[in-house]
Amino acid sequence: DAKTTQPPSMDCAEGRAANLPCNHSTISGNEYVYWYRQIHSQGPQYIIHGLKNNETNEMASLIITEDRKSSTLILPHATLRDTAVYYCIAGFGNEKLTFGTGTRLTIIP
Amino acid sequence: DAGVIQSPRHEVTEMGQEVTLRCKPISGHNSLFWYRQTMMRGLELLIYFNNNVPIDDSGMPEDRFSAKMPNASFSTLKIQPSEPRDSAVYFCASSPGTSMNEQFFGPGTRLTVL
């Protein structure tokens, strides 16, 4: 699975959109981009994933660049409960997923 | 669905004792994963199964660790003998088994070896 690079930490004001970037320049043509988050002491929670097209669900939107070398996770209206570590992963869901150090997102009241 | 179930949620044991962690995947899922999380090493994959068969155990730290999946609804991770450096949170995850599907994680077992 391809290596991903994320900023170690970000802050976002409550109610604003949180945009979390991820670089995956070595992603292979058929690897998916997955986003998970982990709230303190809990198991990682799946957020969204995509291959080429932008995706949206009830939690977030995923924007993948045309060359697939980077992506952005968007939480449209951040709340305090969105404070967590966010992981961007490139790979396949039925194989090993490599969780890096992620981005620690803090929502500021 | 109850999601991935792990037991026990917390385990405290003494060095040298055998520890068995248990996992029940989501019904119908064909892939099962065991991860370990520590402050120093983060979240790392230990082993995963597809259709009850171990596929990649390269993350298992040493022979003291073993994992089994006797059927589609149950898996165990055993540490014998346990050591203080095995203290960590152990997560089990399951997936429907196709390359595109996400993995669903359980709540984890917090293991403390004294």
Entry summary:
The complex is a heterodimer of chains A (109) and B (114). Chain A has 109 residues and is an all-beta fold. Chain A has strands at residues 9-13, 18-23, 32-38, 45-50, 55-56, 61-64, 70-75, 84-91, 103-108.
Could you characterize the architecture of this molecule?
- The complex is a heterodimer of chains A (109) and B (114).
- Chain A has 109 residues and is mostly beta strands.
- Helices cover 0% and strands 46% of the residues of chain A.
- Chain A has strands at 9-13, 18-23, 32-38, 45-50, 55-56, 61-64, 70-75, 84-91, 103-108.
- By secondary structure, chain B is mainly beta.
- Helices cover 0% and strands 54% of the residues of chain B.
- Chain B has no helices and 11 strands.
- In chain B, strands 2, 4, 5, 6, 9, 10 and 11 form a 7-stranded mixed beta sheet that branches. In chain B, strands 1-3-8-7 form a 4-stranded antiparallel beta sheet, with no helix packed on it.
- Chain B is globular, with a radius of gyration of 13 Å.
- At the A-B interface, β3 and β4 of A face β4, β5, β9 and β10 of B.
List the helices and strands and how they pair.
The complex is a heterodimer of chains A (109) and B (114).
Chain A: E1 9-13, E2 18-23, E3 32-38, E4 45-50, E5 55-56, E6 61-64, E7 70-75, E8 84-91, E9 103-108
Parallel strand pairs in A: 1-9
Antiparallel strand pairs in A: 2-7, 3-4, 3-8, 5-6, 6-7, 8-9
Chain B: E1 5-7, E2 10-13, E3 19-24, E4 31-38, E5 42-50, E6 53-56, E7 65-71, E8 74-79, E9 88-95, E10 104-105, E11 109-113
Parallel strand pairs in B: 2-11
Antiparallel strand pairs in B: 1-3, 3-8, 4-5, 4-9, 5-6, 7-8, 9-10, 9-11
Radius of gyration of chain B (Å): 13 Å
Low-confidence stretches of chain A: none
Number of helical segments with 4 or more residues of chain B: 0
Mean of residue pLDDT values of chain B: 94
The strand count of chain A comes to: 9
Instruction: Give the N-to-C terminal Cα separation of chain B.
Output: 36 Å
Query: What is the subunit arrangement here?
Result: heterodimer
Order of helices and strands of chain B: EEEEEEEEEEE
Q: Helical content of chain A, roughly? A: under 10%
Give the largest chain-chain interface (CB within 8 Å): A-B, 23 and 31 residues
Strand content of chain A: over 45%
Class per helix and strand makeup of chain A: mainly beta
C-alpha end-to-end distance of chain A: 37 Å
